[in-house]
Specification:
The complex is a heterodimer of chains A (131) and B (269).
Chain A lengths: L1 H18 L1 H14 L1 H8 L8 H17 L9 H14 L13 H4 L9 H8 L6
Helix pairs in contact in A: 1-2, 1-3, 2-3, 4-5
Chain B lengths: L12 E4 L4 H8 L2 H15 L15 E9 L5 E8 L5 E6 L10 H12 L4 H8 L3 H11 L4 H7 L7 E11 L2 E10 L2 E5 L7 H18 L7 E4 L3 H10 L4 E4 L1 H7 L9 H5 L1
Classes of the chains: A mainly alpha (131), B alpha/beta (269).
Chain lengths: 131, 269
């Protein structure tokens, strides 16, 4: 998957080196004209190339919603419930055999949590009195 | 008869980490020690309190009124007040929930069980709690927006994000869950009953407004989508300067199938 992005980027670079900057630019323009969305990914290396991490999050949330079965409250706030699930997804640490064992999503992304206790963190961070 | 508009009551509850219940009980007896403990805790945490808009931040905290929680054996809950704006903050010990008698250790186990894959119904059987109590607990966490909570964790607002919708079901309705993530962190998880551009703009707009409130100069530089038309339109409306990219994994699905190999005799011929 990642190889496709790299290969297309390298291909444009290869054309620039071997056939000159004009032809390299032509290939890049072809990407731009044909597939502006792909080109946007190739142009900026900081741009994520695939939606794999988003799919992980979607699957995790979907599993929990499926487990809810009949517990959707007809007059409940679905938005609040989903936001609560998202907080849990972000703040519950990964299991001990995982790549980022004992770290939560916030820590993996460079954030800091107030304590080592995930549940206390959840209580502190969702308190209404803090700005 | 016209009624005067009821003023909105802000949730100004602070959860304090008192280590154990004995420390909390000991502190409740001494006013000065209690306020000093709360101040030290706030300094250690590094969070700002939600004062009133008019507050000049020059005030200090003083001990305010108190009340007793009968269901928790008459536990005293104290409030502190800002001397400048008069905003009152309820200080809850970490072992007490707002409006709930649930013990935190029970809540922790009951929330871990569905996270590990158990249904709400089953974990309610294990922990002797009704599924609706757990549902309400998760809803209580959800009262605070994701952007607020994540910026409290000192995470910078994301400049490159992934955005997509998840088709799901709520009771008998088909619904969409517009999502914005950056890395392993969910920055927005919305709920819409239609996948139209207008509905998605409304949902993604919640994130945009929350982020702009945190940082008025906030700009998204790049957004990766799966190329769904309504998503692209709504994101273009909300983030006009952002570069919109298409996921390469979705792009592979659109590529034509590889050509079948040409047999050697045919090639030779």
């Amino acid at each position: 998957m990642f190889a496709l992005g790299q290969r297309l980027r390298h291909f444009a670079g290869h054309v620039t080196r071997t056939a000159g900057a004009v032809n390299g630019e032509r290939v890049r323009r072809w990407f731009q004209d044909k597939k502006a969305g792909w080109y946007a990914v190739l142009e900026d290396p900081r741009m994520p190339a695939t939606s794999t991490l988003l799919d992980h999050a979607h699957h995790a949330i979907e599993r929990k919603l499926f487990m809810m079965k009949g517990f959707h409250h007809p007059r409940g706030s679905q938005q609040a419930f989903l936001t609560g699930l998202a907080h849990l997804y972000t703040l519950v640490p990964y299991q001990r055999r995982a790549k980022h064992a004992d770290q939560c999503g916030v820590e993996v992304e460079g954030g800091t949590v107030p304590t080592r206790d995930w549940f206390l963190n959840l209580q502190l961070l969702t308190s209404g009195g803090f700005r | 008869m016209e009624h005067a508009a009821k003023p909105i009551r802000h949730n100004r509850t602070i959860t304090g980490n008192f280590r154990d219940e004995a420390t909390d009980f000991a502190l409740l007896g001494t006013t000065k020690a209690f306020v000093e403990f709360v101040l030290a805790f706030l300094l250690a945490l590094g969070f700002q309190l939600t004062h009133k808009a008019s507050c000049s931040a020059g005030g200090s905290l003083t001990r305010h009124s108190h009340y007793a929680r009968i269901r928790l054996g008459g536990l005293t809950i104290w409030r502190v007040q800002c001397t400048a704006c008069k905003a009152v903050f309820t200080v809850l010990p970490h072992f007490v929930w707002r409006y709930r008698s649930l013990r935190p250790e029970v809540a922790r186990d009951a929330l871990l069980a569905p996270h590990g894959g158990l249904s709400l119904e089953l974990c309610a059987v294990i922990h002797h709690r009704s599924p609706m109590a757990l549902y309400r607990l998760v809803c209580a966490f959800g009262q605070q927006s994701l952007v607020k909570v994540l910026t409290r964790c000192r995470l910078p607002l994301p400049t490159y994000v992934l955005a997509d919708e998840k088709h799901s079901h709520c009771l008998t309705e088909q619904v969409d869950l517009p999502t914005i993530i950056s890395g392993r962190v969910i920055w927005h998880l919305g709920y819409t009953e239609h996948a139209s551009a207008a509905a998605l703009t409304e949902s993604y707009g919640t994130f945009q407004r929350a982020a702009s409130q945190q940082e008025p100069s906030y700009r998204v530089r790049g957004i990766l989508t799966d190329g769904f038309d309504s998503t692209t339109k709504s994101l273009r409306t909300l983030f006009p300067g952002a570069r919109l990219g298409n996921c390469l994994r979705h792009a592979i699905n659109k590529l034509p199938k590889p050509r079948a190999a040409i047999a050697l005799p045919v090639r030779k011929a």
